[in-house]
Specification:
Oligomer: heteropentamer
Shape of chain A: globular
Number of strands of chain C: 15
Subcellular location (chain D): Cell membrane
Helix content of chain C: 40-55%
Chains: A alpha/beta (238), B alpha/beta (252), C alpha/beta (374), D mainly alpha (310), E mainly alpha (287)
Bound molecules: adenosine-5'-triphosphate, magnesium ion
Radius of gyration of chain A: 17 Å
Number of helices of chain C: 12
Organism (chain D): Ancylobacter radicis
Distance between the termini of chain C: 63 Å
Number of domains of chain A: 2
Number of helices of chain A: 10
Main location (chain D): membrane
Strand content of chain A: 25-35%
Largest sheet of chain C: 7 strands, mixed
Strand order of the largest sheet of chain C: 8-7-9-10-11-14-15
Protein name (chain D): Branched-chain amino acid ABC transporter permease
CATH architecture of the largest domain in chain A: 3-Layer(aba) Sandwich
Pfam families (chain D): BPD_transp_2
Radius of gyration of chain C: 21 Å
Distance between the termini of chain A: 37 Å
Chain lengths: 238, 252, 374, 310, 287
């Protein structure tokens, strides 16, 4: 098998004195959807922040496409091809939907390709085209999530990381977004997904990691994990 | 049945041109646990804000214990016994857990002195199981503990009606189970509870009655089982797939 | 050997720094000259003079603090008050409390002297004398002058001048077409000047600090506001004004307390006005203005009182100063009951060809008045 | 701080100031009085700025209004001490009214609003010449007595004001009011939700922050004997007081007063020794303090004596 | 009638200058959340640089404009990068105190080196008469430059990706980092732009107003008022705020006398603070 697109080995990280990740090992292959699930505070968001360069790992290595990126600045990692859609969407107030999307392409200079990609995002989420002149933070929660994902796509990442896709969204909206992600993956996008709702996570992904206390507790194909009674007892009681 | 403890009569709220609530009417009976669901932006949080005086209703009446409280300030609501939690938890970050709860007992709970309030705060912390963390700064708490703190603070205020805005969002299953027990315990002590939640598991396991908001309008109000199979609710909120999953669970 | 100590809280930085530096220059000149001559005569011995200056940064509160420091820590026997009526009041209050004679060199508003202070003396004549004579002269020269517009800075001295001129003008039959004050900190006079323009006055009279007046003159030009007579008090008394405005200063009239063109003779280190002028010019390269003159004269007041008293006794010195009656290069100095120098005919000046000419009084007149150039 | 060391340091501090006439000349006594005055101003500011966390810049307005009300009363024949009392009460009432309006603003906007009050007061006082004398300023009757007696007298008055402000600080700190103000500081919405009448509490804090400033202003006016709008309503004064409080430790009981003492003394030293550069040196000290002592001087104690902190 | 027209024109010209003076201050406040007490001194520093270049070497202010702008940008950038960035997320009072301290140093240095003597550049460009109204050419030029600069900045903020990045950083620093935006650099650039605009205003002002350190506080005060009137952090806000303030001062000065002109400005600001804290054209959430 070829080298995975992203691979972490023995990554530790945290906030100042507080260590959160205790030696994480993880791999994402090109073309996959990988889900990260785990209890609250397990360190999922911390992991994504460490990958995207907002936090520097205190040990271990993070390799992306054959080069070490651990501890690099966020802009460098983004340039390398990793986009991070943060928890809570974090759209920019005071900027239109369109400007928010364009900010996703901040580091890019290929004007024509940017315009094409914008068009593509609008095709993926037609509601955004309708609302493109509206202040992004006046969208409803689901629309905001679409805008956030769209903004992530705009950097044309090779790996798209989404934190808490469904948090605070109505079940119907989650279904809708899930469909969009599947479409995106079909078009070749590699996705690393953090999701609190384990059922949704397993449905959307090929493989999953279960994170506990800053370490990987289980990993495997999503379909298998979903059938595993020990997993469903701990995580799947609706 | 006696008069509802809290009753909304034709309450509307507009933000500029946006109608966040339109002509909402319902009542909560004393001791009842009621769930409030609806899509994002339906107006759930706005409804709580209007009841507690954080926002001023545009029209309609809000009756609490037979009195129109539509013009009250938040602090008056708190003193009357209308407590709430925030969707985004709002502790006093630099104060200890105990001090946070003491504030609730002192101002909302009508404690006579800071000392008395502290005693009462200890009891609430005991009740929610946070007593061991009493002297930690609130800012250092993990999310689940922070949500518990929010509950303890509300409890210290001797609430008659407690409105919980997504207190379970972001908690994992075992944490949710703990929270459920706690909310049940609170309800058993006679407090009327209104739960806002997107997690159907929580809503359904606690409340026999559901209210559904959609585009600021109350589109359904009735027994939970009926509501979740109501076509309009499925269309507006649950979505077909989820509704099917729910149905399966009930049958299975 | 004992020395005579004179204390001076000065504005060496802050808003009044330029004025403060003028005081600093002449006082130092005076002290140097006195000490070179062996000191001041006190009784049968000569005593050196020590001048102790502190910068009060143009802040009133600090001025009073420093006056106190000078008296308590440095044990000065005399105080020189700083520039301006407001700060003079503050320092004079301290001097009064400690019964230290305070010579105010640059305060001309009667309100400073009407507080029954027994230890405050001022070398400037009351500014009341500046207005009546001016109206009279201008009316004589330009009998068709009917209306006057007055714009003044809301601050002790400029305000009293503005009110004074309006009163004097009315008393002599002129109509006051416009009279307003502008607050400290005004950076734009366009509104006031446009209003003045609309009243088409024969005479425009503006008071303020140099910086205000430069701005006002410039804006008058910009907005095409003019009148046959334009007076700015005390603008042309300062070389900063004429230098800052260049040609635009031409034609502007003003009054002053002293001008180096006058020729007085008297006692002290500089026997004649010319002697002072020469020395000043040699030292600084510029012309002295009334601030320089008045401050240097303040030293002579102290010298004279010491000589007459012959001792350093506080009470005697005060009485001696009160009884001052001397002639100096700056003119006669004799204090009235309120401690102010007696009124005298003050020079009325005009900028002509970018230099200062004296229009009155007749004794020192060196040019005829001209109308404002168009 | 535990009560005992707190009271001890408070008494020692006040005693050192009060004893100034015993160990220093008039100039030292004067400096002590100025320390006491700024101490009172900074302690007052602490109610709104430290406890409540509202960045108020109104100090100079209260100080100046106090000076003017006191001066006007004295000029119309009211005995001096009564005039001071009237000034304090009148300005407190003014602050309560103003607070009701201004405290609806938060954060930067409140800061700006409170600064604008200073400027507006200056402009209004200076244009209302019929009452205030406008730019001419006002003279007050000079207090009779030898300079030494007067200086001691005013030192004592300033000390009384300082002591009173500290006493009230201690009382507030231990009361419901203090608790509520700290809640507001932390999170105003949450405070309202637990039942704190935030408006009333904030107005109370704002009023407390005014009353001692007014007393100090009125006293200061009687002391100098002359006031004018420019010197009475100085933005610099306002900012200086805030810097003092931050320097000592905002929100602590003694911090602001200690900060005031440190600031005044530093100012004295620099400005006596570095005529041309005193302002810059003071600025440098401020910059350095922001970087190395962000919690104020009182945090030094905690750093030097870990475990000694309460 | 003529007098009203003249008053209107006076107000608009003054207003454009106010806008130019305030826009940098507003941006720094809005984006960095820093009330920059140095702003007044920056303006005067720009003025001094222009004056001395003109006085000593006869360099025309218009030529000095880009030079001063570049120098001031560098100064602002360096100050932010080296000092202010270290406390940029601290509470208002901390950053305000820091810039206050820095201002004391700059003020002192300028007074020391340049003295307090008011300086002014006299261009003597005359005036144009349009019927009953008079338009002084140098002020007109200043107004034009001020407007041009402000509009230029608007274009940059609106159309360029740096502009979008500035807004993004202002709204959500963390999320901006995820867009690959280097926030510390954007902060420094923003502070640099703030200083640049102050310096540019100083160049324009040197030909119109006396340049002296005594007036730093006055200009800072105007910047405050303009920001609140127009709304924080946006270029159109500063423009509208400046024009409104200029008009209010001009008309108040005409109707109620110059003594009330500044009072009217401050009253307007207080009223707006209380009724529309977002300012006349402010966007919700910009506070
Ligand atoms: N900025 C921070 N400073 C200090 N500690 C933090 C910070 N952010 C998170 N933590 C702590 O790090 C731990 C892991 O948090 P993280 O957000 O990575 O969890 P998560 O798995 O994403 O949980 P969630 O499901 O709530 O998003 C938690 O204990 C949390 O309290
Ligand atoms: N202060 C406000 N000003 C303007 N619009 C508001 C305000 N508060 C809420 N809204 C709007 O009112 C609508 C209802 O919002 P609300 O927060 O009540 O929804 P919700 O049902 O609680 O949604 P969620 O489930 O996402 O929390 C939304 O469209 C929201 O954008
Ligand atoms: Mg997370
Ligand atoms: Mg909500």
């Amino acid at each position: 098998m070829a080298e995975p697109l992203l691979s972490l080995s023995g990554v530790t990280s945290g906030y100042g004195q507080i260590q959160v990740l205790w030696g994480m090992d993880l791999a994402v292959n090109a073309g996959e959807v990988v889900a990260l699930v785990g209890s609250n505070g397990a360190g999922k968001s911390t992991l994504l922040r460490t990958i995207s360069g907002q936090l520097a790992p205190s040990a271990g290595s993070i390799r992306f496409d054959g080069t070490e990126i651990g501890g690099s600045r966020p802009d460098i990692i983004l340039k390398a091809g990793i986009a991070h859609v943060p928890e809570g969407r974090r759209l920019f107030r005071g900027l239109t939907v369109r400007d928010n999307l364009l900010l996703g392409a901040y580091l890019r200079t290929d004007k024509q390709a940017i315009a094409d990609d914008l068009e593509w995002v609008f095709e993926l989420f037609p509601i955004l085209r309708e609302r493109q002149r509206q202040d992004a933070t006046t969208l409803s929660g689901g629309e905001q999530q679409m805008c956030a994902v769209g903004r992530g796509i705009m950097s044309r990442p090779r790996l798209l990381m989404i934190d808490e896709l469904s948090l605070g969204l109505s079940p119907r909206m989650v279904e809708h977004l899930g469909n969009a992600l599947v479409a995106l993956n079909k078009a070749g996008q590699t996705i690393l997904l953090v999701e609190q709702d384990v059922m949704t996570a397993f449905e959307l992904s090929n493989r999953a990691y279960i994170v506990e206390n800053g370490r990987v507790a289980r990993t495997g194909a999503s379909a298998e994990l979903a059938r595993d009674p020990t997993v469903s007892d701990a995580y799947l009681s609706i | 049945m006696s008069d509802p403890i809290l009753r909304l009569e034709g309450v509307s709220k507009t933000f500029g041109g946006l109608k966040a609530l339109t002509d909402v009417s319902f009542g909560l009976n004393e001791g009842e646990v009621v769930g409030l669901i609806g899509p994002n932006g339906a107006g759930k949080t706005t409804l709580v804000n209007v009841v507690t005086g954080n926002l001023r209703r545009s029209s309609g009446r809000i009756m609490f214990e037979g009195e129109d409280v539509g013009l009250q300030k938040p602090y008056q609501a708190a003193r009357r016994g209308l407590a709430r939690t925030f969707q985004i938890v709002q502790p006093f970050p630099a104060m200890t857990v105990l001090e946070n709860v003491t504030a609730g007992a002192l101002f909302g709970g009508g404690a006579a002195s800071v000392g008395d309030a502290r005693d009462k705060a200890r009891q609430s912390l005991e009740f929610v199981g946070l007593a061991p963390l009493a002297d930690r700064p609130a800012a250092n708490l993990a999310l689940a503990a922070r949500k518990r703190l929010e509950l303890a603070k509300s409890l210290a205020m001797n609430p008659k009606v407690l409105m919980l805005d997504e207190v379970n969002a972001g908690l994992n299953s075992s944490e949710i189970d703990g929270a459920l027990d706690l909310i049940r315990k609170i309800a058993d002590s006679g407090v009327t509870v209104l739960i806002i939640e997107h997690l159907m598991k929580v809503v359904l396991s606690l409340s026999k009655r559901l209210l559904v908001l959609h585009h600021g309008q109350l589109i359904a109000d009735g027994p939970s089982r009926e509501i979740v199979s109501d076509e309009r609710v499925i269309e507006a909120y649950l979505g077909q797939k989820f509704a099917a999953r729910l149905k399966e669970m009930h049958h299975g | 050997q004992e020395v005579i100590k004179i204390g001076a809280p000065l504005a060496l930085t802050g808003g009044l720094a330029d004025e403060g530096k003028k005081q600093d220059i002449v006082w130092k000149m005076w002290v140097e000259k006195v000490n070179a001559a062996g000191g001041l005569q006190v009784g049968d011995k000569k005593m050196k003079v020590e001048l102790i200056e502190y910068d009060y940064q143009s802040e009133g509160q600090r001025a009073s603090q420093l006056a106190e420091k000078l008296i308590n820590d440095d044990k000065v026997q005399f105080l020189f008050a700083p520039f301006g009526s407001g700060h003079t009041k503050i320092v004079a209050g301290v001097g009064e409390r400690y019964q230290i004679p305070t010579i105010a060199c640059v305060a001309s508003s009667e309100s400073v002297f009407d507080q029954t202070f027994k230890h405050l003396f001022g070398t400037l004549s009351p500014n009341g004398g500046m207005t009546t004579a001016m109206v009279k002269l201008f009316k004589e020269k330009y009998p068709e002058t009917k209306t006057i517009a007055v714009l003044g800075r809301d601050d002790v001295f400029p305000k009293s001048m503005a009110e004074g001129i309006a009163k004097a003008a009315e008393a002599q039959g002129l109509t006051v077409a416009y009279k307003e004050l502008y607050p400290v900190g005004t950076m734009d006079h366009a509104a006031a000047l446009s209003s003045i323009k609309a009243t088409k006055p024969d005479w425009i009279y503006i008071t303020g600090y140099t910086q205000d007046l430069i701005l006002a003159r410039k804006q008058m030009q910009d907005l095409g506001v003019t009148a046959p007579i334009v007076t700015m008090v005390t603008g042309p008394s300062y070389k900063e004004f004429t230098e800052g405005l260049g040609k635009l200063a031409n034609g502007i009239t003003s009054s002053s307390w002293w001008h180096h063109a006058t020729s007085y003779t008297g006692e002290g280190v500089w026997p004649t006005t010319a002697a002072f002028y020469e020395e000043f010019k040699a030292k600084t390269g510029g012309d002295p203005d009334y601030v320089h003159g008045s401050c240097a004269a303040a030293g002579e007041v102290i010298a004279d009182a010491l000589e007459r008293t012959g001792s350093l006794d506080k009470a005697k010195l005060r009485d001696a100063i009160a009884a001052t009656d001397i002639q100096t290069f700056y003119g006669p100095i004799k204090f009235g009951p309120n401690g102010m120098n007696l009124p005298r005919e003050l020079p009325i000046i005009q900028v002509q060809d970018e230099t200062i000419k004296v229009l009155a009084p007749a004794a020192i007149k060196n040019a005829d008045m001209i109308a404002m150039p168009k | 701080m535990k009560p005992l060391p707190l009271y001890a340091s408070l008494v020692v501090g006040l005693a050192i100031l009060a004893a100034a006439p015993l160990y220093g000349d008039n100039y030292v006594v004067r400096t002590a009085a100025i320390v006491a005055m700024y101490g009172a101003l900074a302690t007052s500011w602490n109610f709104i700025g430290g406890f409540t966390g509202y960045p108020s810049f109104s100090t100079a307005a209260f100080f100046g209004l106090g000076a003017y009300v006191g001066a006007l009363c004295q000029r119309s024949g009211v005995p001096m001490v009564v005039a001071w009392a009237i000034a304090s009460v009148a300005v407190a009432a003014f602050a309560a009214l103003l607070g009701g309006i201004l405290l609806r603003l938060r954060g930067h906007y409140f800061a700006i609003g409170s600064i604008a009050v200073v400027e507006l007061c200056r402009l209004i006082v200076s244009s209302w010449s019929s009452l205030t004398g406008g730019g001419d300023g006002l003279n007050l009757p000079l207090v009779q007595g030898t300079p030494e007696d007067l200086m001691r007298f005013f030192l004592m008055v300033m000390l009384v004001i300082l002591a009173a402000s500290l006493l009230v600080t201690i009382l507030v700190d231990r009361s419901r009011l203090g608790f509520g103000l700290r809640c507001i500081h932390q999170n105003e919405d949450a405070a309202a939700m637990v039942g704190v009448n935030t408006t009333a509490y904030k107005v109370a804090a704002y009023t407390l922050s005014a009353v001692f400033c007014a007393a100090a202003g009125a006293t200061y006016a009687s002391w100098t004997g002359y006031i004018d709008p420019t010197d009475s309503f100085q933005i610099v004064l306002t900012v200086k007081v805030v810097v003092m409080a931050l320097l000592g430790g905002a929100g602590t009981i003694l911090g602001p007063a200690i900060g005031a003492a440190a600031f005044v003394l530093l100012e004295e030293v620099f400005w006596a020794n570095f005529i041309d550069w005193n302002r810059a040196i003071l600025g440098l000290v401020i910059v350095v303090l922001i970087f190395f002592l962000p919690g104020g001087l009182l945090s030094l104690r905690r750093r030097l004596m870990p475990g000694g902190a309460a | 009638m003529a007098i009203y027209l003249q008053t209107l024109v006076n107000g608009l010209m003054l207003g454009a200058l106010y806008a130019c003076l305030a826009v940098g201050f507003s941006l720094v406040w809005g984006v960095l959340n820093v009330i920059n007490m140095l702003h007044g001194s920056f303006i005067i520093l720009g003025g001094y640089l222009t004056y001395f270049a003109w006085h000593a070497y006869g360099i025309h202010p218009v030529i000095m404009l880009p030079v001063v702008a570049a120098l001031m940008f560098a100064l602002g950038f360096a100050l932010q990068r080296g000092l202010i960035n270290k406390v940029v997320s601290a509470p208002v009072l901390t950053t305000l105190t820091l810039t206050f301290g820095l201002d004391m140093i700059l003020y002192n240095a300028m007074t020391y080196f340049f003295t307090a003597t008011p300086r002014r550049i006299t261009l003597d460009l005359g005036a144009i008469s349009l019927g009953p109204i008079t338009l002084p050419v140098d002020r007109l030029l200043g107004t034009g430059l001020a407007l041009l600069l402000t509009l230029l900045l608007y274009a940059v903020m609106r159309g360029s990706s740096i502009g979008r990045a500035i807004v993004a950083v202002r709204m959500d620093r963390m999320a901006a980092e995820l867009m690959g935006i280097r926030t510390d650099r954007i902060y420094a650039i923003t502070f640099g732009i703030g200083a640049l605009m102050a310096g540019a205003a100083g160049v324009v002002f040197a030909t119109i107003f006396p340049i002296t350190t005594n007036v730093t506080g006055i200009w800072l005060g105007k910047a405050f008022v303009v920001c609140v009137v127009g709304g924080l952090g946006s270029v159109p806000g500063a423009l509208v705020g400046g024009l409104v303030l200029g008009l209010v001062e001009s008309f108040a000065g005409h109707w109620f006398g110059p003594q009330q002109a500044m009072t009217a400005g401050f009253l307007l600001m207080l009223v707006l603070l209380l009724t529309r804290p977002t300012g006349l054209v402010g966007v919700k959430g910009y506070e």
